[in-house]
Amino acid sequence: MQLQSGVHSTPITDVTTEYVACNGGPNPTTPSSNIINVIAGSTVQAIWRHTLTSTPSNDATYVLDPSHLGPVMAYMKKVTDATTDVGYGAGWFKISEQGLNVATQGWATTDLINNAGVQSITIPGCIANGQYLLRAELIALHAASGTQGAQLYMECAQINVSGGTGTSAPSLVSFPGAYGQSDPGILINIYTTLTTYTIPGPTPFVCGAVQSTSKISSTSKATSTTLSSLTKTSTSVLATGTVVAAPYGQCGGQGWTGATICASGSTCVVSNAYI
């Protein structure tokens, strides 16, 4: 599976720009012609890296700079053709979010680092089948006490969902539009003991639950929500966008619909017709 990939890692700081949807602008992106098949209800992984070449052996901050504290989220948008849709505009719904655990003052990005940069994402089982953009995002708040100080990092992956029941329709938001520059989760001083933190954007869509497109109150602790299956590379220094197979993981074979591109330094080798 492949993301619409970028070769730079400059953050998006203006939440009113169209680039807040799927990156671009200061980070030129190259759309992929590949679409990965995903079964509704399954879990995918977005993998974050500091740079395109960062590994545990050559970069102590190979996931992202630990000072980049903030929330981690995932969104989806149903589209006609995921290979050509530019992402910005209406149609987005959030499927996962994690913010601040006020009991420990621990942020989602720290958990992401501790999990080797793996953001697990579960695709809702009740959505309609078809092509979607899957948007993985983190927001670094280390400089967010000033206007346009929050640093947004995101990439979009192209997926085709099957097996969905189509029994629930999520409430939709727009990018740009879902975030405001003065939202309490965007404009904030994190260098104090916080008793609440409002994660930007709508509440996550949950099959069978009533959803709101706005937050009524601040969250009191981090909420880990499972997302869905994609591999993403992007962070504070370099936002890449290739979904790759993990070292020693499956990268091909009969009936395989997952990642077919190997991680840097790895080679896809045929073991049998299925691997």
Question: How would you summarize what this structure contains?
Answer:
The chain has 275 residues and is an all-beta fold.
Task: Describe this structure as you would to a colleague.
By secondary structure, this protein is mainly β. The protein has a domain at about 5-175: Distorted Sandwich (Coagulation Factor XIII, Chain A, domain 1). About 5% of the residues lie in helices and about 25% in strands. The chain has one helix spanning about 110-115, and strands at about 5, 30, 35-40, 45, 70-80, 90-100, 100, 105, 120, 130-140, 150-160, 175. It has a six-stranded mixed β-sheet. Strands 1-2 form a two-stranded antiparallel sheet. It is globular and about 45 Å long. InterPro entries: AA9, AA9_LPMO, CBD, CBD_sf.
Structure characteristics:
single chain; 275 residues; mainly beta; Coagulation Factor XIII, Chain A, domain 1; six-stranded mixed beta sheet; two-stranded antiparallel ribbon; 1 helix; 12 strands; 3% helix; 24% strand; globular; cellulase activity
According to CATH, the fold-level topology of one domain is Coagulation Factor XIII, Chain A, domain 1
User: What string gives the helices and strands in order?
Assistant: EEEEEEEEHEEEE
Rg of Cα set: 18 Å
Gap from first CA to last CA = 16 Å
**Low-confidence blocks of residues:** 216-249, 263-267, 269-275
Protein name: AA9 family lytic polysaccharide monooxygenase
GO molecular function: cellulase activity; cellulose binding; metal ion binding; monooxygenase activity
Keywords: Carbohydrate metabolism, Cellulose degradation, Copper, Disulfide bond, Glycoprotein, Metal-binding, Monooxygenase, Oxidoreductase, Polysaccharide degradation, Secreted, Signal
Enzyme class: oxidoreductase
